[in-house]
């Protein structure tokens, strides 16, 4: 399963590389736990709580709420 959209950072990247996001502007919460590329991981790890990011995600298949980020782009002035 893949999805693309805008997400608000709820909890920034932790020591395990996981980021908690909320679908923007809705309230579905999800967790990015894997990254396709180190640049994508770097983009997400630089964001603070409340930041909005546009992502392409793919389900990791491990848990229904865990995702792999395929691309990430911070969004300014939403």
Automatic annotation (TrEMBL):
Q: Which residues form the DUF7999 domain?
A: 2-74
- Reading the lineage from the top rank, the first entry is Archaea
InterPro entries hit by this protein: DUF7999
This one is known as DUF7999 domain-containing protein
One of the Pfam families matching this protein, by short name: DUF7999
